Protein backbone atom coordinates (compact mmCIF):
# COMPACT_ATOMS: atom_id res chain seq x y z
CA UNK A 1 0.00 0.00 0.00
CA UNK A 2 1.47 3.30 -1.07
CA UNK A 3 -1.22 5.63 0.21
CA UNK A 4 -3.97 5.63 2.78
CA UNK A 5 -6.91 3.55 1.59
CA UNK A 6 -10.31 3.36 3.17
CA UNK A 7 -13.03 0.79 2.77
CA UNK A 8 -15.83 0.50 2.13
CA UNK A 9 -16.40 3.66 0.15
CA UNK A 10 -19.95 3.91 1.45
CA UNK A 11 -22.08 2.16 3.98
CA UNK A 12 -25.80 2.20 4.68
CA UNK A 13 -26.99 0.83 8.01
CA UNK A 14 -30.16 0.90 10.06
CA UNK A 15 -30.43 2.88 13.25
CA UNK A 16 -29.19 0.73 16.11
CA UNK A 17 -26.84 -1.36 13.98
CA UNK A 18 -23.19 -1.52 14.86
CA UNK A 19 -20.73 -1.00 12.06
CA UNK A 20 -17.06 -0.74 11.32
CA UNK A 21 -14.76 0.33 8.55
CA UNK A 22 -11.10 0.18 7.69
CA UNK A 23 -8.18 2.50 7.06
CA UNK A 24 -5.14 0.80 5.51
CA UNK A 25 -1.76 2.45 5.31
CA UNK A 26 1.89 1.73 4.57
CA UNK A 27 3.26 0.11 7.69
CA UNK A 28 6.81 1.41 7.30
CA UNK A 29 7.88 4.61 9.08
CA UNK A 30 4.60 4.94 10.93
CA UNK A 31 4.25 7.92 13.23
CA UNK A 32 0.56 8.43 13.97
CA UNK A 33 -2.86 8.09 12.36
CA UNK A 34 -5.71 10.57 12.62
CA UNK A 35 -9.40 9.73 12.36
CA UNK A 36 -11.89 12.49 11.55
CA UNK A 37 -15.62 12.78 11.17
CA UNK A 38 -16.44 15.08 8.29
CA UNK A 39 -19.57 16.60 6.81
CA UNK A 40 -19.22 18.14 3.37
CA UNK A 41 -18.28 21.82 3.33
CA UNK A 42 -17.55 21.79 7.05
CA UNK A 43 -14.44 21.55 9.13
CA UNK A 44 -13.44 17.95 9.98
CA UNK A 45 -14.02 16.94 13.58
CA UNK A 46 -11.08 15.16 15.18
CA UNK A 47 -11.99 11.79 16.62
CA UNK A 48 -8.78 10.00 17.49
CA UNK A 49 -5.02 10.14 17.12
CA UNK A 50 -3.66 6.61 17.11
CA UNK A 51 0.02 6.18 17.79
CA UNK A 52 0.95 2.83 19.34
CA UNK A 53 0.48 -0.62 17.90
CA UNK A 54 -2.43 -2.20 19.71
CA UNK A 55 -3.92 1.17 20.67
CA UNK A 56 -7.60 1.12 21.34
CA UNK A 57 -9.40 4.40 21.91
CA UNK A 58 -13.00 5.15 22.67
CA UNK A 59 -15.22 8.23 22.52
CA UNK A 60 -18.81 7.49 23.41
CA UNK A 61 -20.15 4.94 20.96
CA UNK A 62 -17.16 5.28 18.64
CA UNK A 63 -13.94 3.40 19.09
CA UNK A 64 -10.83 2.71 17.06
CA UNK A 65 -8.02 0.18 17.02
CA UNK A 66 -4.59 0.27 15.46
CA UNK A 67 -2.29 -2.38 14.02
CA UNK A 68 0.90 -0.73 12.81
CA UNK A 69 2.61 -4.00 11.91
CA UNK A 70 0.03 -4.94 9.32
CA UNK A 71 -0.92 -1.34 8.49
CA UNK A 72 -4.56 -0.93 9.37
CA UNK A 73 -6.90 0.81 11.75
CA UNK A 74 -10.55 0.00 12.36
CA UNK A 75 -13.22 2.47 13.36
CA UNK A 76 -16.26 1.02 15.13
CA UNK A 77 -19.60 2.65 15.80
CA UNK A 78 -21.86 0.88 18.25
CA UNK A 79 -25.61 1.40 17.99
CA UNK A 80 -25.47 3.78 15.02
CA UNK A 81 -27.69 6.83 15.14
CA UNK A 82 -28.84 9.05 12.23
CA UNK A 83 -26.59 11.81 13.55
CA UNK A 84 -23.59 9.54 12.94
CA UNK A 85 -24.21 9.94 9.21
CA UNK A 86 -21.07 11.58 7.83
CA UNK A 87 -17.87 10.76 6.01
CA UNK A 88 -15.14 9.27 8.16
CA UNK A 89 -11.62 10.14 7.08
CA UNK A 90 -8.24 8.89 8.13
CA UNK A 91 -4.82 10.39 7.46
CA UNK A 92 -1.25 9.61 8.39
CA UNK A 93 0.17 12.31 10.62
CA UNK A 94 3.43 12.73 8.73
CA UNK A 95 1.82 13.90 5.51
CA UNK A 96 -1.86 14.48 6.35
CA UNK A 97 -3.09 13.07 3.04
CA UNK A 98 -6.60 11.82 3.59
CA UNK A 99 -8.02 8.59 2.34
CA UNK A 100 -11.09 8.78 0.14
CA UNK A 101 -13.23 8.31 3.21
CA UNK A 102 -16.11 6.04 4.15
CA UNK A 103 -19.47 7.70 3.71
CA UNK A 104 -21.83 6.38 6.38
CA UNK A 105 -25.60 6.77 6.13
CA UNK A 106 -27.69 5.68 9.09
CA UNK A 107 -31.37 5.22 8.28
CA UNK A 108 -33.91 5.87 11.04
CA UNK B 1 -13.27 27.87 20.94
CA UNK B 2 -11.79 27.96 17.47
CA UNK B 3 -8.06 27.62 17.30
CA UNK B 4 -7.71 28.10 13.54
CA UNK B 5 -9.56 30.79 11.63
CA UNK B 6 -10.03 31.22 7.92
CA UNK B 7 -11.00 34.36 6.11
CA UNK B 8 -13.13 34.93 4.17
CA UNK B 9 -15.65 32.18 4.83
CA UNK B 10 -17.29 32.79 1.49
CA UNK B 11 -16.19 34.71 -1.60
CA UNK B 12 -17.70 35.29 -4.99
CA UNK B 13 -15.51 36.77 -7.68
CA UNK B 14 -15.36 37.33 -11.39
CA UNK B 15 -13.33 35.16 -13.69
CA UNK B 16 -9.77 36.45 -14.07
CA UNK B 17 -9.49 38.01 -10.62
CA UNK B 18 -7.25 36.77 -7.84
CA UNK B 19 -8.52 35.73 -4.44
CA UNK B 20 -6.54 35.51 -1.23
CA UNK B 21 -7.57 33.20 1.60
CA UNK B 22 -6.03 33.60 5.03
CA UNK B 23 -5.50 30.86 7.56
CA UNK B 24 -4.52 31.87 11.08
CA UNK B 25 -3.64 29.83 14.14
CA UNK B 26 -5.14 31.72 17.05
CA UNK B 27 -3.36 30.54 20.16
CA UNK B 28 -0.44 28.43 19.05
CA UNK B 29 2.45 28.54 16.66
CA UNK B 30 1.75 26.52 13.57
CA UNK B 31 4.98 25.11 12.28
CA UNK B 32 3.21 23.40 9.41
CA UNK B 33 0.05 24.31 7.57
CA UNK B 34 -1.83 22.20 5.06
CA UNK B 35 -4.17 23.39 2.34
CA UNK B 36 -6.96 21.18 1.05
CA UNK B 37 -9.57 21.43 -1.63
CA UNK B 38 -12.82 19.55 -1.85
CA UNK B 39 -14.00 18.54 -5.29
CA UNK B 40 -17.71 17.76 -5.62
CA UNK B 41 -18.63 14.46 -4.02
CA UNK B 42 -15.01 13.73 -3.14
CA UNK B 43 -12.84 13.69 -0.08
CA UNK B 44 -10.54 16.50 0.95
CA UNK B 45 -7.58 16.57 -1.42
CA UNK B 46 -4.29 17.84 -0.11
CA UNK B 47 -3.00 20.66 -2.28
CA UNK B 48 0.18 21.66 -0.52
CA UNK B 49 2.10 21.59 2.72
CA UNK B 50 3.86 24.69 3.96
CA UNK B 51 6.42 25.12 6.69
CA UNK B 52 6.98 28.54 8.15
CA UNK B 53 9.67 30.43 6.32
CA UNK B 54 10.13 27.98 3.49
CA UNK B 55 8.53 27.30 0.15
CA UNK B 56 5.40 25.20 0.07
CA UNK B 57 5.53 21.62 -1.15
CA UNK B 58 2.82 21.07 -3.72
CA UNK B 59 1.06 17.82 -4.45
CA UNK B 60 1.32 16.35 -7.91
CA UNK B 61 -1.09 18.02 -10.29
CA UNK B 62 -1.43 21.23 -8.29
CA UNK B 63 -0.14 24.25 -10.18
CA UNK B 64 2.13 26.25 -7.93
CA UNK B 65 1.82 29.35 -10.08
CA UNK B 66 -1.94 29.12 -9.90
CA UNK B 67 -2.23 28.49 -6.18
CA UNK B 68 0.30 30.68 -4.42
CA UNK B 69 0.97 29.73 -0.82
CA UNK B 70 2.81 31.92 1.63
CA UNK B 71 3.61 30.93 5.20
CA UNK B 72 5.45 34.00 6.35
CA UNK B 73 4.83 33.64 10.07
CA UNK B 74 4.07 30.94 12.61
CA UNK B 75 0.46 32.06 12.82
CA UNK B 76 -0.45 32.92 9.24
CA UNK B 77 -0.54 31.16 5.91
CA UNK B 78 -2.23 32.48 2.80
CA UNK B 79 -3.49 30.78 -0.32
CA UNK B 80 -3.93 33.01 -3.35
CA UNK B 81 -5.91 31.66 -6.28
CA UNK B 82 -4.53 33.63 -9.19
CA UNK B 83 -6.59 34.46 -12.27
CA UNK B 84 -9.46 32.41 -10.94
CA UNK B 85 -11.76 30.57 -13.33
CA UNK B 86 -15.09 28.85 -12.74
CA UNK B 87 -13.37 25.47 -12.44
CA UNK B 88 -11.54 26.83 -9.38
CA UNK B 89 -14.86 27.14 -7.58
CA UNK B 90 -14.54 24.86 -4.61
CA UNK B 91 -14.36 24.55 -0.85
CA UNK B 92 -10.85 25.29 0.42
CA UNK B 93 -9.81 24.39 3.94
CA UNK B 94 -6.59 24.75 5.85
CA UNK B 95 -5.23 22.92 8.82
CA UNK B 96 -2.47 23.92 11.17
CA UNK B 97 -0.09 21.70 13.05
CA UNK B 98 1.85 22.77 16.10
CA UNK B 99 2.39 22.36 19.80
CA UNK B 100 -0.56 23.40 21.89
CA UNK B 101 -1.29 22.42 25.45
CA UNK B 102 1.71 20.15 25.64
CA UNK B 103 1.10 18.03 22.56
CA UNK B 104 1.51 18.27 18.82
CA UNK B 105 -1.96 18.66 17.44
CA UNK B 106 -3.74 19.28 14.17
CA UNK B 107 -6.57 21.76 13.82
CA UNK B 108 -8.74 22.63 10.86
CA UNK B 109 -10.07 25.99 9.87
CA UNK B 110 -13.76 26.37 9.07
CA UNK B 111 -13.16 26.50 5.32
CA UNK B 112 -13.72 29.01 2.52
CA UNK B 113 -16.32 28.58 -0.19
CA UNK B 114 -15.03 30.14 -3.42
CA UNK B 115 -17.40 30.76 -6.31
CA UNK B 116 -15.96 32.10 -9.54
CA UNK B 117 -18.50 33.52 -11.95
Tell me briefly what this model is.
Chain A has 108 residues and is mainly β.
Q: How many helical elements of chain B?
A: 0
> What fraction strand of chain B?
over 45%
Distance between the termini of chain B: 34 Å
- Largest Cβ-defined interface: A-B, 19 and 22 residues
Q: How many strand elements of chain B?
A: 11
Name a few traits of the molecule.
A: five-stranded mixed beta sheet, 10 strands, B: 117 residues, mainly beta, 60% strand
What does this structure look like?
The complex is a heterodimer of chains A (about 110) and B (about 120). Chain A is about 0% helix and about 50% strand. Chain A is built from no helices and ten strands. In chain A, the strands form two sheets. Chain A has a five-stranded antiparallel sheet with strand order 1-3-8-7-6, with no helix packed on it. The model of chain A has no long low-confidence stretch (mean pLDDT about 95). In chain B, a hairpin with a 5-residue loop joins strand 4 (about 30-40) and strand 5 (about 45-50). Helix content of chain B is about 0%, strand content about 60%. The relative contact order of chain B is 0.32. With about 120 residues, chain B is mostly beta strands. In chain B, strands 2, 4, 5, 6, 9, 10 and 11 form a seven-stranded mixed sheet that branches. The interface of A and B includes residues 40, 46, 87, 96 and 101 of A.
Amino acid sequence: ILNVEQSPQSLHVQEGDSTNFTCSFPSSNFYALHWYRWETAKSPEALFVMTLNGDEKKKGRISATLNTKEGYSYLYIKGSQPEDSATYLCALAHDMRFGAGTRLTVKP
Amino acid sequence: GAVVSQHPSRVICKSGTSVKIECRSLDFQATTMFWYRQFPKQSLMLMATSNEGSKATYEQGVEKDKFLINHASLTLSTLTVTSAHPEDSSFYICSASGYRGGGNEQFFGPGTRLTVL
